[in-house]
Amino acid sequence: LFSDHNQMVNEVAFSPDKMWLASASDDFNVRLWDLESGTIRLPLLIHPAAVNSVVYNKDGTQLLSSSDDGIVRLWDVASSDVVQEFDHGGLVVHRAVFNPDNSWVATAVSDGSVYIWTVAGELVQQIVAHDLPVHDLAFNQQGTYLATASDDGSAHLWDVTGEVAEYLRTFTGHAGPDLGVSFNRYGSRLATSSND
User: Fold this and answer.
1) Angstrom distance (rounded) from CA 115 to CA 189
2) How far is CA 193 from the centre of its chain?
3) Is the C-alpha dihedral spanning 92, 111, 130, 164 positive or negative?
4) Of 75, 141, 181, 194, which one has the fewest beta carbons inside 10 Å?
5) What are the angstrom distances between the C-alpha of 155 and each of 27, 58, 134, 179?
6) What residues pair up with 97 in beta bridges, in sequence order?
7) Residues 119, 142: Cα–Cα separation, whole Å
């Protein structure tokens, strides 16, 4: 049992080597836990608002966190320094993910938009994806498709191989908001989750 946050924990993520666990919380902090000893690596990774998501890059050297403050931060795990910030103008960012080769960052935003950035912080495009907040998003393993899940009760599928994302189709069926979305290993199936 790892217990140190004093408010709700919104997400956890294992490092690729399974030696560390990152946790994102409403207490404004990301904590990095040593899974063998149960100790926390200091200093803490701090936002000025609730932290909604956390994910490692594929080699475990960097960590991406999204927050209610509208800033997504890219952290160097070894030093705990901020490598890059992705500013969404104060809009709540529900989730941030890397594409499979870690060259892009995609963010799910409270105004229904999805932003795609280079890891260097350049905004590549803004997709007006939904009419209501986007809560989750996922790339397929090839990085060619992006799925988005929204409060509007739908998931959308996008082709992101071109300069401008191309809308492909909508998935519906939930009676409540779509809160999660995930591809299977081969990209042939898409699963969504809801609080319905």
Assistant:
1) 24
2) 16
3) negative
4) 141
5) 29, 25, 9, 9
6) 106
7) 18
pTM: 0.93
Rounded to an integer, the average pLDDT of 11-40 is 93
What radius of gyration do the chain's Cα atoms show?
Answer: 16
Q: What is the mean pLDDT of the chain?
A: 94
User: What's the one-letter identity of residue 55?
Assistant: V
Give the residue carrying structure tokens 């499979």.
Answer: 100
Q: Are strands 40-46 and 29-34 parallel, antiparallel or unpaired?
A: antiparallel
Peptide bond into 43 cis (omega under 30): yes
Does residue 69 surpass a pLDDT of 70?
Answer: yes
| φ, ψ for residue 78, nearest 5 deg | -65, -40
| Amino acid in position 94 | H
Distances (CA, A) of 87 to 35, 93, 158, 171, 177: 32, 10, 23, 29, 26
Dihedral over Cα of 64, 67, 73, 79: its sign: negative
Q: Find the Cα–Cα–Cα–Cα dihedral 2, 80, 43, 78, rounded to 10°.
A: 70
